[in-house]
Design brief:
The chain is an alpha+beta fold. The protein has two helices and four strands.
């Protein structure tokens, strides 16, 4: 498991109920794993935006921030901006 650098973010995750917490933590691990194997991404910055865990590529600015959260009564969502050319 990737350790939390910010206790506020760790607390945010601890407040999710199961099964949402385990699913969101799994997505978090995948986000960090994908960033680690892609050298163009660089170090991720984990923060909270709009009350949601957010992952940004502030070092390289190689992508749009990704946010994850519970969505509706029974779903998990990954929020990101996709620009089509």
């Amino acid at each position: 498991m990737i350790l939390f650098e910010d206790p506020t973010i760790e607390e945010l995750f601890s407040n999710y109920e199961e099964p949402y917490k385990s699913k969101l933590l799994e997505i978090r691990e995948l986000i960090f794993a994908c960033a680690e194997i892609n050298s163009e991404v660089g170090k991720l910055k984990e923060s909270i935006k709009w009350g949601q865990p957010t992952y940004s590529t502030l070092e390289t600015k190689s992508g749009t921030p990704i946010r994850i959260d519970r969505f509706g009564e029974s779903d998990i969502a990954i929020f990101l901006i996709v620009i089509l050319f």
